[in-house]
Amino acid sequence: MFYQADLNFKYPVIERYSIAGNLGYSYRNFADNTVLVDLKSYSAGVDLFYVYTANRDLLAGYHFREEDTSRDSEEL
Predict the structure, then answer these.
(1) HEC-encoded secondary structure of 10-51
(2) Is 60 exceeded by the pLDDT of residue 73?
């Protein structure tokens, strides 16, 4: 099974600037974990857009992702 949820937004601050962001979650669940492990993934990001000219844009941003597997939580 595979589950995924994403939220993306973009907000114009003033004429030349806008802020965008995203949040995400995904979960991959395998029925037989002998070869493949379950995977959870969390992500977040924020971007600042600046309209430099009609043909050019500048972009600055930060994105973060964390992943967790079922193998990490098992005792060996």
Answers:
(1) EEECCCCEEEEEEEEEEEECCCCCCCCCCEEEEEEEEEEEEE
(2) no
Tokens found for residue 44: 């977040």
Q: Which amino acid is at 9?
A: F
Q: What is the pLDDT of residues 9-63, one digit of tens each?
A: 999 999 899 999 999 999 998 887 777 888 899 999 999 999 999 899 999 999 9
Which residue, 34, 30, 32, 35, is CA-closest to 3?
30
C-alpha–C-alpha distance, residues 76 and 72, integer Å: 10
Query: 47 is written with which tokens?
Result: 């971007």
Residues 6 or more apart in contact with residue 8 via CB below 8 angstroms:
20, 21, 22
